[in-house]
Specification:
The chain is mainly β. Helices cover 11% and strands 58% of the residues. It starts with 9 loop residues before the first helix and ends with a strand.
């Protein structure tokens, strides 16, 4: 989700999102051709929630969201991207918003071909990324954030992964807003209940203030998933569950908050 807005034309921002996805696909294609690809995972999520809050709108907004994500690991690190398509269904004029992020992490352990693990510490890497947003129903909308920093991978009991990004963030609008900081833990914790397969996964963004432009933010989107495909002999493919969105100072606007549970359906491939 975006942290603030940048004024640009719709076409320019949409093209920017397309470039992010194209570059990510090229990275995957090149990795496959060079036999560097080690693993990959893609999924499509469908989310539906009510009681979203938006700026200058006293009404609660209902939204349907389609999210496409892809992540893959290769010989020197990993690449990740997602794109949200958000449809407003009630509480504001019908509109479509796009929001995407792409990150690439170079693993120091993989590059040096050394095991850097020590206790709960597993590896660390150098990370760079871009966040892009667009309101397709507005000629004056858009978002640009450029991020760089380090990622620390932890080896915690029971977790498939637990990573924390420590990033500098630069948001560019009509005027450059300067830099701030962002800390983002990402996790997946699988578990079983009475023979059924579940997972608790998600991320949280903690973002510093940007001068007088944007207040400090906290955005968390944890998900609880039930693997319903496992009941039919096709595990790790189809999930239902709930995502809870908590956003303090949404878009960096002091006093604007979200606390929204959303119905979740996920297809992984």
């Amino acid at each position: 989700m975006p942290t603030f807005y940048l004024w640009h034309t719709s076409i320019a921002s949409f093209n920017g999102l397309a470039v992010v996805i194209l570059l990510s696909q090229l990275c995957l294609s090149n990795a496959v051709k060079a036999d560097l690809l080690q693993w990959s995972e893609s999924e499509i999520q469908s989310l539906n929630g009510i009681n979203f809050n938006e700026p200058f709108n006293p009404e609660h907004v209902s939204k349907s969201i389609i999210t496409v994500t892809h992540v893959h690991g290769w010989s020197y690190g990993r690449n990740f991207f997602f794109m949200d398509t958000l449809f407003s269904t009630d509480g504001e004029p019908a509109q479509i918003n796009l929001y995407g992020e792409a990150y690439s992490t170079l693993s120091v352990g993989k590059i040096l071909k050394r095991d850097l693990s020590l206790g709960i510490f597993k590896d660390f890497g150098i990370t760079g990324g871009v966040n892009l947003g667009e309101n397709m129903d507005s000629v004056q909308s858009g978002f640009r954030a450029w991020l760089y920093g380090v990622t620390v991978d932890f080896d915690l009991p029971g977790f498939d992964y637990f990573n924390v990004d420590f990033l500098r963030q630069r948001v560019t609008e009509t005027d450059d807003m300067g830099t701030s900081w962002q800390i983002t833990p990402v996790w997946r914790l699988p578990f079983h209940i009475a023979g059924s397969k579940w997972s608790f996964e998600g991320f949280a963004d903690f973002i510093g203030k940007k001068g007088e432009h944007a207040a400090r933010q906290a955005l968390a989107q944890p998900q609880l998933r039930l693997d319903i495909g496992d009941f039919f002999g096709n595990s790790d493919q189809l999930f239902i569950g709930v995502e809870y969105q908590f956003w303090h100072n949404k878009y960096g606007i002091k006093g604007l908050h979200d606390s929204v549970p959303q119905a979740l359906l996920v297809w992984t491939f």
